[in-house]
Automatic annotation (TrEMBL):
Origin organism lineage: Eukaryota, Metazoa, Chordata, Craniata, Vertebrata
GO MF annotation terms: dynein heavy chain binding; dynein light chain binding
GO biological process: intraciliary transport
PANTHER family referenced in this protein's UniProt entry, alphabetically: CYTOPLASMIC DYNEIN 2 INTERMEDIATE CHAIN 1, WD REPEAT DOMAIN 60
Organism encoding this protein: Oriolus oriolus
Gene Ontology CC: cilium; cytoplasmic dynein complex
Protein name: WDR60 protein
Highest taxon above the source species: Eukaryota
InterPro entries to which the protein is assigned, alphabetical: DYNC2I1, WD40_repeat_dom_sf
Gene: Wdr60
Length: 112
């Protein structure tokens, strides 16, 4: 609820990594690991900003931020085929109106 993200290992209560105020205090409403690239995850905040984290490139800050224009996104999920090496990865956004928006991710964050 405060924009913090914690990375845990299943065998420990304490987080391996913790990023405080990663969204400038905005609640995170969806977070998901990339299906095609294990070191990348995406976070959607309550202000409809998507943050892309690539832990191999930078483990302190997101590598990119994209604001969803026009209408508030209420949730997000990812689509892709991890068993294929084509690097196709998409973000599916559900908006307040009920509209669904699909955006494809740049290859550099999608390729295995």
């Amino acid at each position: 609820s405060d924009g913090s993200i914690r990375l845990h290992q299943m065998t420990s209560e304490s987080p391996l990594m913790q990023w405080n105020d990663s969204t400038k205090g905005q609640p995170i409403i969806a977070l998901q690991w990339a299906l095609t690239r294990p070191a990348v995850f995406f976070a959607l905040d309550a202000s409809s900003n998507i943050y892309i984290w690539d832990l191999l490139e930078n483990d302190l800050l997101p590598v990119a931020k994209q604001t969803i224009p026009s209408e508030k996104a209420v949730t997000m999920t990812l689509l892709g085929e991890p068993e294929k090496a084509n690097g196709l990865l998409g973000i599916v956004l559900a908006k307040e109106s009920g509209q669904i928006d699909i955006q494809y991710v740049k290859k550099k964050w999608a390729l295995p």
